[in-house]
Amino acid sequence: MITRFCLTDFASRVSDISALRTLLEGGAQIRGVRNLHAKLYLFGRNRAILTSANLTETGLSTNHELGFVAEDASVVDPCHQYFDNLWGRAGQDLRTEKLADWEQEVSKFLAAGAHQGRARKLGDEGVDVGIPARSDVFPSWVGDAEYAFVKFFGESSNRAARSMQIVDEVRRSGAQWACAYPKGKRPRGVPDASIIFMGRLVKEPNDVLIFGRAVAIHHEPGRDDATAADIRDRPWKVRWPHYVRVHHAEFIAGNMANGVSLNELMDSLDANSFASTQRNAGTGNTDPRRAYMQQPAVKLSRQGAAWLSEQLERAYDKYGRLAPAIMDGLDWPSPTS
To answer: CB–CB of 21/99 below 8 Å?
Structure first.
């Protein structure tokens, strides 16, 4: 197999280190080249599939893809020539011991927020065969994420003005790398790869405006508790000392008024907004406005997550995202934190 060995791809789950390990344990030979995007599957010398589909569950079962199966030698033979040429230029076979090193480096990168400036420092272990690089964006698999949450920033006693600049809230909260939870309420219910939609409590009129999103890392006591330095920089963390670390954070440019209204979500979907109210249909509370009262976060339903994703993409298209230079200038934790 020829694939990519870019550590940024592993961090964003475009590629999967554990899948490579499974293949190696099964006797596969694997080589890597930089910037590869082709999807070619060869079966013996007599059949080839050329397709847009990745070798993933969504790529092979749910996405709208296009491809063809060929058994004609005039098609199959050039496909083998392409593969053999690339294989001969792709360097050495992958060894299992490399995977542990990659996992450690990726884990540190994610725990430090996975921001763009640091992403450029992650290695690419593939061979450069002259394929031009592509630009990376927020992980493309987010629409398939199993869990999604709205994490609330601010309290009812300190609602922000809609004119507040989003970058100021990010600087205040440190939301580019962590979402804080109150003392004594460890966020153990947020698993890896959950999508966190970040919402600020605002006033005139009261609402929660979604101003960004990120990918979660499960809470690990000790690593994800505020240090003395954290509290010195942000004294409010005395009361909010527990973290869900996040990576690949992106935020709407401009002010809070550009954000996506949680009230509009609840008006549109009602009980189907959140997982709990959807689950309670006919048996308990189905009022979404009661579901998140006094809570630091609320779990979204599938419909709620899809609705927010669509509206947030529209906001990004209309207002843009916080620029990479601004994101790089924020305070980020050390990769060894």
So the answer is: yes
